[in-house]
Amino acid sequence: MVPHVVAGTRLADLLPLLEADHRVQVLFTVHGATHGTEEFVRGLGGHVVPWQQAVRHRFDLVLAASHRGLDELHGPVLALPHGAGALKSRSRPRRGGTFPAHGLSRERLIRDGRVVAAAIVLAHHDEHRVLAESCPEAVPAAVVAGDVCLDRLLASTPYRDHYRRALGVAPVERLVTVSSTWTRHSTFGAHIGLYGALLERGERVAAVLHPNVWSVHGARQVRAWLPREVLVVPPDEGWRAAAVAADAVIGDFGSTTQYAAAVGRPMLVVPIPDDMLRPGSLADLVYRTAPVVDPECPRVEDAVVVPGVAEAISSYPGGAGVATRRTMYRLLGLPEPTHAVPVSPVAVPRVVG
Question: Counting C-beta atoms within 10 Å of the first and last residue's C-beta, which end of the chain has fewer, N or C?
Answer without folding.
Answer: C
